[in-house]
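Quick one:
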Amino acid sequence: MDYIRQNQAEVSEKASEVITEYLEKNGPQKSAGHVIQSEYIAAFKTWGVPLEQSTLERIDLFKRQIWNPAKAARSSVTKKSKEDQYELVMPKWNSIIQYLRTVEPDDFRLRVRQIVESQASYRDLPNQTFINMGIIVNKCNRELKTILRSTVAYISLLFTTGMRSITGLDLSLSSFQQQPDGSILLTRVEHKVGNTRNCSKKVYCRLVPGKDLSQCTLIHLAEYFGTLHGGHLPFYLSASKLG
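Output:
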């Protein structure tokens, strides 16, 4: 750090040369903006290394002409994909919940095994999905029932609260606090707050009984939590839980 402070001009020149070399080779690539920002600029900022104004202007030019438009296009495609998935699932949502709550382990195992054997027909699914299915079909009935209850509770909770799936994995049993009126106060921590980096915020949500008990998130949680024997993170599927 002392060397950097004492030799600002030299260090800035060298850092700018590194950035310039990278831009010449990779600048037109859509992913180059992320690499520049998260690896190079972040590191230089941590060490207090300034960049020459000409280099900053060149980076800004790539942002305006290539990186930002590419990012916007990716975001648009992702948003459309999520909307399509939502429209596809919603008409079948109640049936999915009902099936997962009522299917017998033997029937579920048979259906999963049939899907695994017909992997070639499901080209849109990643290979890891079939690996996980191959593990599931070897579970005993007791373990399968726990997996099914966990799945129903998890997706029902995400559907009701709108939380991100990765946030749900971080929930602990202490995140759920019963209230005097019979509702459940759920406290979660969101680590994605708009475009702000390295920050988090607590979000509070009150879960109340639904009119249709078969679709009620509190019922789904009770059916799963009632089978737990310890376990701090109920929805975290570690390798030991799955394998």
